[in-house]
Structures are given as structure tokens and as C-alpha cells.
Amino acid sequence: MGTPIAGTPGAAGVAVGPVWRYSAGGTAEAERKPPAAGQPGAASAVQAAALKAAGQLEALAGRVRDLGRPDEAGIFEAQAMMATDPELLDEAVSRVEAGEEPASAVRAAADAAGATLAALPDELLAARAADVRDVGARIVRILLGEEIDLPGVPSVAVADDLPPSVAAEIPPGFLLGVALEGGSITAHAVILARGLGIPAIVGAKGLTAAAASATTAAVDGASGEIVLDPDPGEVAEFAARAAKLAESRRAAAALRGRPGATADGERVALLANIGSPEDAPRALDAGAEGVGLFRTEFLFMKRGTAPAEAEQVAAYAAAFSAFGPERPVVVRLADIGGDKAIPYLDLPAEANPFLGVRAIRLAAHGSRELLLTQLRAIWRAAGRAGVTPHVMAPMVATLDDARLLLELRDEARADAAATGDPLPDGMVTGVMVEIPSAALIAAELARIVDFFSIGTNDLTQYTMAADRGNPALGHLQDALHPAVLRLIRDVVAGADGSHIPVAVCGELAGDPAGALVLVGLGVDELSADAGSLDGIRAALAAVTRAELDDLAGRALAAGDAETVRAMARQLLDRPGRALDGPDRTSME
Amino acid sequence: MQVAELDVRNPSGLHARPAAQFVKTAAAFRSKVSIENLTRGSKPVNAKSLLSVLGCGVENGHRILVSAEGEDEEAAIEAVRKLADGGFGEAVGG
Q: Does B62 touch chain A (CB under 8 A)?
């Protein structure tokens, strides 16, 4: 019998495979040192490391391109060229020949090249400066033998945590599952696993020590079970679970052409969350009926000046055109603030940036033009694509915030009209409900806006006063807590008074158990990662309105999130049904 | 030595993909190829180095001077001229 370890379910899926261990310090097996400065071979070690780095980056570009992310592939291709750039290598080699250590010579050459680019007046080149420093760091890692030893065969990743940079380097198909000793269910690796449809387990105490000598692992992401070095009987059992899951996924995928609905025909629109126009094909493939959350931060981050209106028009028009007039795309105004350094905003440092000047609040603090420019770009992009634009503002706490949004919208339209571009007649304008105050005045807000979109991650963090990113507070981060559910019930009641729709675009909407509770509470639309849509579509198709009403009633009266989740699981798992979804019965 | 003065008319200038195309074209020849940004008045640099070409900061509307010296200098300049006419692989205008 193998060694069983229990963790917290993160992403559904079952896998059995070889163990691939990752630790942040680099893998010990790869330990080797380059020739020291002055020794023969020091210069050629630099050349060889540079060539190897270029090869890795080219391979990475190819994999990312195959995944349908051409822009990212372009960055890696440029980095591959930088790795073997003749001027960079000349500089590094002449430093080595002058007696410098190879690693420090490469670092200095890359830093100098980066500084030259960063000094240019063009903000796009500032990003290239970071790219060349990153290339330098990669060559240095190779020289020092600190590079990550990626799995050579499809494997189960076992680690304390798996950072995004490492996860991105693992070739698709080589990651069978993820088992983490640390991490929370909102960890990047878990979100990645959900997108890939592979299992992820977090918070598995004692895992890394126990797995130090293990060769294979079996994981079930729905139950949180890990078995190290399983015996043949255990392997057969996990294989049977995998087959059952694959069957239920096939059944769920077969529903893809159909709009979301309960078994008795009540419509629930199933929408995708996207982070850039490039996410559109994946969302459409998954049968998304539109986009409930188009995050626009990608336009505003990692740059020295605010994005120009024309650049924004192009990005929004690309997304609008991809989905067309029949599939609305809800653009969320920039959700930025003091948590990220945004040089062109000149924001003062804040002790609590998530309780500070961010998003719509920027308008009253010197950045009104930033939001006006974004709204003008949305008007013009919608005109160009021939669609009615949908927009929502995050961080709305008061009626005045909502009124300000409407005022900015109208002012932006008047400005945009002056350009002579064709514009749509109206903009469907909503607010995000993620601050408890907004939930409590939902009836009043509903009289002046066109829709609500509940951000359950932030609504939970603000209701429970528990930082989303703090793993020690995992038990306070479950959006199924009855306190959060009662706020959602109030939002729905407030919306019903003015007959406006309510969407949910947080993580809870993509979790089948969460989706059932939300629709039970009267939510009209669910927006989630494209990879979650099959699971929630199938979950809804198997239940009736009456069953969901009953579930919602019991959930509102429950004492804690675990109880609510167990109730929803009971409905999901009743006999005759085999549904695929993260079973997060325990948040401990 | 062969030289060509060229106007850069593609939207992103010699950044990103157009710069990579330019460097790949120059690197395909044995001749020494260099580029200078006449608009900015920069010094000539190695056209086979992406970092050097990016460092010229060539933007849409700038004028560049490309020179080639070596056995295949004529073919090198011809290839660069053709690339520039095609907008360095990027749609011109917009």
C-alpha cells in the first residue's frame, strides 16, 4: 500500500504518474559550477550557456504559439534573439577575458543593454529592457546550474508552491496534476490546473518530506487524496475514477452547443471571464454566451505612460468583433490602485491599497482623464465593431460613485462624438457589487444602473475582513459563507425591484457547487474561466428550479460555508449523476 | 560599401517583430551591416544585433541609413530595401 496524504481539493481531475519535484532553490541534481574567471573555458562556457538559453526560449515560443498565444510567443522569440545577440555576447566575453566571473559578466552586460533601452523616450522599449535583463538572468541560471530541471515525461508536480514562471515553462501535456504542500485554492497553480482540466491539491501537510523518495503519485483533485507510490490495486482504483470523470466530462462537453439552463428550462446565461482579446477563441470554443468580465488591466500595467486612446480602441474593438453583436462583452473599467506601482498615476503609497484610492475612486483624485479616455475608447470601439457596449465600474460603494460613472459615460460620449466616428446610441452601464455597502443599498443603485455584477472574491474579502492573499485566513475566504450569501440575496432582491439582471463573475460562479447556490439565490448570469463552463452547464442542466430554491433556503439558514458546500455537493452527487467539479468540502 | 536611406512607415517602427525581421534579414548576409537613425542622429550600430537595433529607437516616420560592406553587400542592401518597402512585415498605415 502507498503512503496516503490528505490535502484540500483545488481543481477536479484524477492522475497517476511519475513524481516531478520542484523546489524554489533549484534542483540539487543539476548542481554544477562554471569555470572560474581566468580559467580556460570561461568564455566558451558563456557562449554555450547563451546558446542553451536561446534554445530554451525558442522552444518556449513554439509551445506558447501552439497554445494560441502569439503575442507571448513573439516576446520569447525576441528573447531568444537577445540571448545570442552578438553585441551582448561580445561585451560579456570581453569582461570574462578581463578577469570577471562569467555569471557577473553576463549580468553586467545584460544590465548595460537594459539601461540603454530604458533610457530611450519610447515606453514600449522600457518593457524590452526588462526582457533583456530576464534573458541575462536565464543565462546566469544555466551557468550556475540553477536552472529548473523540467519534467522530461508527463508527471505529477509535487512542490511547496509552483510559481507562474515555472508552471509556464512546463510543456503542455507534461503536467498531469499538481500537489502542493502550501498554497491556497486561489493559488496561480490551481487556476492554471482548472484551465487545463487537471487535478490540483493544496495544503497537503507533510507532502514534500514524504515525497522526497517517492517515484510515483496518484492524485484525486476532487477529494484531495494523494497516494505516494501507490500499489497496483490503488493504481487501478484511481484509473477507474479517471475513466468515470472522463466520461462525465464527455457528457458535459456534449452540451456545449446549448445555452445554460436548468432541467426545467430556466435560462442562466453562461459567460466567460477574459483578460485580453486573445482569450476570445478559447471562450468561444467553450460555448461562452458572451463575456461577463473583460479585465482591462493588461492595457494599464507594466508601462511608463498611460495607454493611448487609439491603442485602447483597437483592443476593445478586437474583443467586440470576436464575440459579435449577439454575444455581449462586459468591459470592466481599469481596476488599478496603489497595490501596483503605476508610474504615470503618481499615486501615494497606502497602508491598505485595497481599501484605498483605486478604480472609480481615481476619478476624484486626479485621474478623471484616465477613466474618460477609457470610456471614449469603449464608445468608439463599439461604433467600429457595430455592437452595443456593456461597461461596469469596480469599487462602487455609494450612489454618488454610480452617478459619477454615468456622468463620465455621458461626457465621454460627447467627446467621442466630436471625433466624427460612428457611435452606438447607448451604453449598457452597470456596477460591480463587491463592497458590502453597495450590496446593502442595491435597491437604490438598481434604480439608476442597468445591471449588477457581483465580484464574490472581493465581496468575501471585504465582508469577512480577510485578505484574499493571506493563506493563514483560508477558512475566512470561502464565498459560500452564509454572511456573503445573505448579501447576495439582498442584491438580487434590490435588482428585482427595478427589473435589472444580476451576474456573478467571481471564482464561486465557476465552481459547480457555487453555481447551484447562486442560481438558487436568483442570480441570472454566471461568468467564469472558459475551462469551468462545461462543469457548471452540466450541473445546472441536472437540477430543477424547485430544487435550487430549496437549496438556497437551506444555505441561507446554515451556520458555515462547509455546511453549505456539503448541501450543494449532495445535490450534485445524487445517484445517477456523475458531475465534474472541484469539491472543496474543507477549507482548512 | 553600399548604402540606402530608408523611411520607416510601419506603425510600431523598428520595435518588436519588425526589428526582429530587420535583424534576421541583415544576419543572413556575410557583409558587415550597420544601421543609424538619421532622425535621432544616433551613431551607426551593428544591424545584426537586436539589442543595438532596438537601441536606435526607430519610430514610425523616422529616416534610417543602412550600410553594408563585404562580398554580398549589394544583395544585403537590396534585401533590406525590399523589407522596408513591405513595412518590415507589418501593415503600413493605420
A: no
B41 falls within a domain: yes
Chain B interface, best mutation among A90, A125, A132, A313, by max B CB count within 10 A:
A125
Q: Is A381 helix (H, G, I), strand (E, B) or coil?
A: helix
Q: Are residues A411 and A438 in the same domain?
A: no
Q: Which of residues 110-139 of A touch B (CB under 8 A)?
A: 113, 116-117, 120-122, 124-125, 128, 132
The number of folded domains in chain B is: 1
Range of the domain at B46: 2-89
Do the domain assignments include residue B16? yes
On the 0-12 / 13-18 / 19+ scale of CB atoms within 10 A, A546 is exposed
Nearest-neighbour CA in chain A from B17: distance (Å): 7
Query: Least CB-CB distance to B23: which of A81, A88, A124?
Result: A81
Residue A94: give its domain's CATH number.
1.10.274.10
**Are residues A374 and A409 in contact, defined by beta-carbon separation less than 8 angstroms?**
no
d(CA A429, CA A389): 8
Best of A76, A85, A311, A313 to mutate (most B CBs within 10 Å, chain B): A85
For chain A, the distance separating the N- and C-terminal CA atoms, rounded to the nearest angstrom, is 26
Residues A485, A474 share a domain: yes
Structural domain that includes position A70: 28-143
CATH of the domain at B59: 3.30.1340.10
Q: Which residues of chain A have pLDDT under 50?
A: 26-32, 577-588
What would the DSSP string read from start to end of A127-152? HHHHHHHHHHHHHHHHHTT-S----S
Q: Is residue B94 part of a domain?
A: no
pLDDT for residue B93 is more than 90: no
A336: domain CATH number is 3.20.20.60
CA distance B31 to chain A (A): 15
Q: How confident is the model at residue B30 (pLDDT cuts 50, 70, 90)?
A: very high
Q: Cβ separation of A132 and B16 shorter than 8 Å?
A: no
DSSP one-letter code for B70: S
The ipTM of this complex is 0.91
Q: Is B15 a catalytic residue?
A: yes
